[in-house]
């Protein structure tokens, strides 16, 4: 009994040493390329924290020194939705202050974990000498790469109304949106995350809602785009009938240096969300009142 335990401990220490040595070789190359990530927080707060969590989870790191260096500036940012829809104060001054703070803090790249806030990205990028990631462009590139041409876009009312994602979609893409009543449901889910409601409860409710939407939605969507980073917080962990494209994960993958490794980790973590289950026949679905074709 004692001898066997000794051999087990010895083998375990040997495997640990071997893994640590292999990690050290990989770390030298990875750390040389790793950038200090500047995160514009507060857009919204829970979505920003979730972005940082996904940055850590998808980094492939195994020790403290392996994780990406990051700095976050989380100001009290006025509602971008209200401003873009014609009411409320402009969030631009406080956003400009945030990106300049991140630049002074030594950020090598700045990310804005909010699709709606990308309406102000051009002004923010012009205000600093640091590259500012483009969530909208990266999402469009992901859809083109995967051949999705009929995405159902779930986003804030402002993002949907201004069609912020569409400028980056491939020619011939038909963007599908929830109708007025379903869009109110999307807004309620977003508000629930911002309010700090139970993530477990919201995840279950959101997954059921997506399944119902896919059953009712016309246009035969070939994927669901979680086009609001609050929705990323409650991304379904159970299979739905089409792949889910999560804009938070898209942005994380875009800034990490080892894209191939990130993709492998992401596939392992999100395989359940990409599983397929039979969809209802198209003849049984309600036709959408709001398909938009990109020309």
Describe the protein's architecture and organization:
With 295 residues, this protein is mostly helical. The protein is built from twelve helices and eight strands. The chain has helices at residues 2-33, 45-57, 80-84, 92-104, 121-126, 135-146, 157-162, 180-195, 199-216, 229-233, 247-255, 259-270, and strands at 37-41, 70-74, 109-111, 151-154, 174-176, 223-226, 244-246, 291-293. Strands 2-1-3 form a three-stranded parallel sheet, with helices on both faces. A three-stranded parallel sheet has the order 4-6-7. α10 links the parallel β6 and β7 (244-246). α2 packs across α11 and α6 (135-146) crosses α11 (247-255). The N and C termini lie far apart (73 Å). Mean pLDDT is 83; it is low at 6-12, 14-32 and 259-295.
Give a quick precis of the structure:
With 295 residues, the chain is mainly alpha-helical. Helices cover 50% and strands 10% of the residues. It has a three-stranded parallel β-sheet with strand order 2-1-3, with helices on both faces.
Helix content: 40-55%
Order of helices and strands: HEHEHHEHHEHEHHEHEHHE
Low-confidence stretches: 6-12, 14-32, 259-295
* Count, helices: 12
Mean pLDDT: 83
| Tally of strands | 8
What attributes does this structure have?
12 helices, three-stranded parallel β-sheet, mainly alpha, 295 residues
Walk me through the topology.
Blueprint lengths: L1 H32 L3 E5 L3 H13 L12 E5 L5 H5 L7 H13 L4 E3 L9 H6 L8 H12 L4 E4 L2 H6 L11 E3 L3 H16 L3 H18 L6 E4 L2 H5 L10 E3 H9 L3 H12 L20 E3 L2
Parallel strand pairs: 1-2, 1-3, 4-6, 6-7
Antiparallel strand pairs: 5-8
Helix pairs in contact: 2-11, 6-11, 8-9, 11-12
